[in-house]
Design brief:
The chain has one domain. Helix content is 76%, strand content 0%. It is built from ten helices and no strands. It has helices at residues 2-13, 27-57, 59-65, 71-84, 86-98, 107-135, 140-153, 166-174, 176-189, 194-221. Helix 1 (2-13) packs antiparallel against helix 2 (27-57), helix 2 packs antiparallel against helix 7 and helix 4 packs across helix 6 (107-135). The radius of gyration is 18 Å and the shape is elongated. It starts with a helix and ends with a helix.
Length: 224
């Protein structure tokens, strides 16, 4: 799916690179990190789907009844989502390179991209688990898909903030996903700099800490 999104967005928005201020003359440099983040989000939600399946079939209840801490149940799911995000990220990266994407930031650009996608997968995995532990059904994933698409589309995914107006510009400015996009995209638009790195890292760490605490609280309250 993230590869399909890259193809769709690069075709639909390719002419925007001719407008001054877009940020790059290569549409793949702009859209590939966005597609990779889309894949990472659904990698995180896919991990939640596996937990939802175990929960509905009763296997999760057996795990809850075992002696010991429940913390590994949370960490295992989160770790799986972070590793799973590497697959769509690599697919998008290699596909975009083959179509002409350049990497001005070199190795640091690739590292920034993989850090952003892995940690964003963790964020949406935790958000999905919060809702799953409350609803205890696969149907919770439908709500998470709405949240995921909303968070990504109301950001600088397609165009810079300077191209926006009205409520969308305000929403994109305060959307933490905007900072994550700038972290993942910086090395494909120019050099990697600390000024565009720390806001993305801060946004990711903050979201992980808050959502992680809420997910852990929900798991502790989950009765077998």
């Amino acid at each position: 799916m993230p590869v399909v999104l890259v193809v769709s967005f690069t075709g639909a928005f390719s002419s925007l690179t001719r407008i001054e201020g877009y940020g790059t003359s290569n549409i793949y440099n702009w859209m590939a990190p966005y597609g990779a983040l889309q894949g990472a989000v659904f990698a995180g939600l896919g991990s939640v789907g596996s937990s939802a399946d175990d929960l509905e079939q009763g296997f999760f209840d057996r795990l809850l009844l075992t002696p010991g801490s429940r913390f590994p149940l949370l960490v295992g799911t989160v770790g799986y989502s972070a590793c799973r995000a590497l697959i769509p990220t690599t697919a998008v990266f290699l596909f975009s390179l083959a179509l002409g994407m350049t990497v001005p930031g070199g190795l640091l650009a690739v590292i920034s991209l993989y850090i952003a996608t892995s940690l964003l997968a963790v964020v949406f995995c935790l958000l999905g688990l919060i809702i799953l532990y409350k609803m205890k059904t696969q149907r919770s994933l439908m709500l998470m898909q709405v949240i995921a698409f909303g968070a990504l589309f109301i950001s600088v995914g397609q165009v810079p903030q300077s191209f926006m107006d009205g409520w969308l510009k305000v929403a994109a400015r305060y959307n933490p996903i905007t900072n994550v996009l700038e972290l993942s995209r910086q090395g494909f638009l120019g050099d990697v700099a600390w000024s565009t790195t720390w806001p993305g890292l801060l946004a990711l760490v903050s979201m992980i800490l808050v959502s992680g605490a809420l997910a852990w609280r929900g798991l502790k309250r989950l009765a077998p």
